Amino acid sequence: MEHRTHALEDDVVVFNISMTIAKPHRVDLWWPVFVAMPRMISELKHSRRGAERGEGEDLGFLGATTLMGRRGPWVVQYWCSTENLYDYAANPDARHLPAWKAYNAVGRKHPGAVGIWHETPAVPAAGIKTLYGNGADVGLGAATGTVEVTRRGHRARERMGSKVA
User: Fold this and answer.
1) Which of 1, 63, 93, 114 would you label with 156, given CA atoms 20 to 30 Å apart?
2) What is the mean pLDDT of residues 91-111?
3) Which of 140, 139, 159 is nearest to 149 (CA)?
C-alpha cells in the first residue's frame, strides 16, 4: 500500500464555507448563492495558474475541495495566510464582493431562506498531519502536492509537526 502526506512545509489557513438551504422550493433565492462559489473558485484557480506561469499576482490561494451534504455544499479552501484571504474578499475587481452584496440583499429581503457560514482556522505547520493512502488525492494534499509519508516519519506521532526533509 502506498502512503503519502502533504508536501506543504508552511502554515496554512483553512477556510471552510458553506450554504444552508432552508427553503428548497425558492430556487430563485438560493441558486445565485449556490453558483457564486464555483465561479470564485474558478477565478482563484485561474489566477493561481497565471501566477505559476509568471503572468499574474499570486493571491495566496492553494486549492479547494467541494463536498456535498444534506443541507448544501461545503467548500474547504486552503490559503497561505489570512491576509491573502482577506485581500481577495475585499478586492473590488474579484467575484467575491458582488456575490457577497447579492447574498446580503436576498438575506435582508427574505430572511431564513438561505444561510451561509464560514470558519477560518489558521493552522501552524506544527499542527498539521495528513495521510493519503493508495492514491487518494483530496484536501491539502490535492492543493499542495504530496510526498512519501516516510519523509516525515513512520508513525503519525512522528509526522505531526515535522518538516519535509
Assistant:
1) 63
2) 92
3) 159
Residue 141, SS3 per DSSP: helix
Coarse DSSP helix, strand, coil percentages of the chain, rounded to the nearest 5 percent: 40, 25, 35
Beta bridge partners of 66: 75
Q: Which amino acid is at 146?
A: T
Question: By C-alpha distance, which of 133, 123, 47 is closest to 82?
Answer: 123
Average pLDDT on 99-127 reads 92
Q: Are 74 and 16 spatial neighbours (Cβ–Cβ below 8 Å)?
A: yes
Grid coordinates in use for 101? 452584496
Backbone angles phi, psi at 25, to 5 degrees: -70, -15
Residue 64 has pLDDT above 90, yes or no: yes
Q: With bands split at pLDDT 50, 70 and 90, how would you rate the model's confidence at 165?
A: very low
Full-prediction pTM beyond 0.70?
yes
- 122 is written with which cell numbers? 489558521
At 67, phi and psi to the nearest 5?
A: -120, 150
Q: How many angstroms separate the CA atoms of 146 and 4, rounded?
A: 6
Question: How far is 116 from 41, CA to CA, in rounded Å?
Answer: 16
